[in-house]
Specification:
about 325 residues; single chain; alpha/beta
């Protein structure tokens, strides 16, 4: 096994590993230039360049002219505040790993990124663990992108312009975990090919889970429910105006087996609805009590049994989907 600090060229894999090189950026620059010269004289093009954990504060200048066929660049775990113009010279780059740096300012990404060949070649971009407070507009123009990771930043919102990604037909995974998001724009529904959406560790998820708790109904609500469920008659002269208005605010429980009502107290539950025939979106609906969220334990007819089985299956699928969407 190679020790940290040793340059490694993986035979047959066209990979140059300079991870944890433990030298000054100047020395690393010289080493990289020398390696680039070696690769230009070799038949096999360099495809993977690993530079994580090297105390880099900027991209090496040698990237600008020595690695035209590079497909993967890993500069994670450095001290980068910007990805400079050297990046634009990597015309065939497919994967860029730049997590755990200090990226986030207005010049964090190179100017002209949206007009560069990277716009058509880059498929995987990992910018997790940086300092972005907003999604850079140029990211929305990366047409070949399949995976975008922005977890562990300081994002407070997702721009409505994310709907531009309807043109990114290949986008499959979007990671937004551990940010400061309190809501998502409706335009995110336009990402119709999305298969994975990670939202864990955001205020919107914490608030959402907190809102799922159930507070018992008050005596007022219990009395009002009894009047509604048992169809107890009353006239406007029987009750004060505030109670009449309260009774008129009743909502019907959507559970077809219940027939109950609720006023201020309800159980919030997720129901997954098919979207575009393949992707199930979590939508909130409201029930009058926790019992309405669980299938009955017995049934007298086979159709009822089948319905309960379907409910159990749906509950299982819903739990799995919720874990994937909110915690994945």
């Amino acid at each position: 096994m190679e020790e940290a600090g040793a340059a490694v060229i993986a035979a047959g894999e066209a990979e140059l590993n300079l991870s944890r090189f433990s030298v000054s950026p100047e020395t690393l620059e010289s080493e990289l230039e020398a390696r680039g010269e070696e690769r230009r004289g070799a038949r096999e093009a360099l495809l993977r360049l690993l530079l994580p954990h090297n105390r880099l504060v900027s991209l090496p200048r040698a990237l600008g002219n020595g690695f035209p066929h590079l497909q993967l660049l890993d500069v994670s775990g450095n001290a980068l505040t910007a990805l400079g113009p050297e990046l634009l010279a990597l015309r065939g780059l497919r994967t860029l790993l730049a997590k755990n740096n200090r990226l986030g300012g207005p010049g964090a990404l190179p100017k002209g990124l949206a007009q560069s060949p990277l716009c058509r070649s880059l498929q995987v971009l990992n910018l997790s663990g940086n300092c972005f407070q907003e999604v850079p507009a140029s990211l929305l123009e990366l047409r070949a992108l399949q995976t975008l990771s922005l977890g562990g930043n300081q994002l407070q919102s997702i721009p409505a312009e994310i709907e531009n990604l309807r043109r990114l037909h290949s986008l499959r995974s979007l990671s937004l975990h551990n940010n400061l998001l309190t809501y998502l724009p409706r335009e995110i529904l336009n990402l119709i090919h999305l298969e994975e959406l990670s939202l864990r560790g955001n205020p919107l998820v914490v608030r959402f889970v907190r809102d799922l708790t159930y507070d018992p109904p008050t005596l007022l609500e219990l009395a009002a429910r009894t009047i509604k469920i048992r169809n107890i008659s009353y006239t406007p002269y029987d009750l004060p105006g505030n109670l009449l208005r309260y009774l008129s605010s009743a909502s019907n429980c959507p559970n077809p087996k219940c027939g109950g009502v609720y006023f201020d107290c309800c159980v919030r539950q997720i129901k997954f609805v098919d979207f575009c025939g393949k992707y199930r979106l979590p939508l909130m609906h409201y029930l009058c009590s926790p019992e309405c969220s669980s299938p009955c334990s017995s049934a007298s007819h086979s159709s009822t049994s089948q319905s309960e089985s379907d409910s159990e299956d749906e509950a299982s699928v819903a739990a799995h989907r919720m874990q994937k969407v909110l915690l994945g």
